[in-house]
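Lab notebook, bench 4. Still working through the backlog of constructs that have no structural model yet. Next entry is a single chain of 188 residues. Request: give me the structure tokens for it.
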Amino acid sequence: MTAVDERMIALIDEHPEVFERYKIELLRGEIVMMAGPDWVHNDIVELIRDQIPAARWHRMTTQDIAIPGEDSEPQPDLLVIERGAFEGPGRLVPAGAATLLVEVVSKTSALRDYHTKRSVYAAGQVPAYLIVDPFAARCTLLTEPVGAGEVADYAATRTSKFGDPVALDMLGMTLDTSGFKTLPGTPR
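Model written out:
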């Protein structure tokens, strides 16, 4: 960690109220701050979370993930882990406990969601990563992580448009995307 990173962390610790509206992540050694998400983004996260059976799965938002071998502590929009796979304490959940990570693309996150986090999550051997893109009105499900470091990736990709069901075999369910709203523009 650099002196700049340490000063930034100290500033956040000293004045948390200033940073409440921001999402802050560490991605491959870089501190990334993003404005809070908009209504469509949060609505999609809620629609996904509410479909995942709570009796079997923890469905956590704003939860930091520890990625072994990476200088990264991403905060996915939704973390799904089987009950009992991790019970805490601490702010970092080991990537190995995750079953599914979900990112909803925003105007400023497209590059990170489609490329950086794809590689980071694959390096962490997260079994499934779902990218929900309200600009392109599509979902991309990535499975079968391979490789390590910056060359890590997912071997299997399934893309579907909003309105089509998305089979989430790792959760034993099918995701209904018919209620997902879209946003104008194409940040990709």
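Notes after review: The chain has a mean pLDDT of 86. The radius of gyration is 16 Å. Flag for follow-up if needed.
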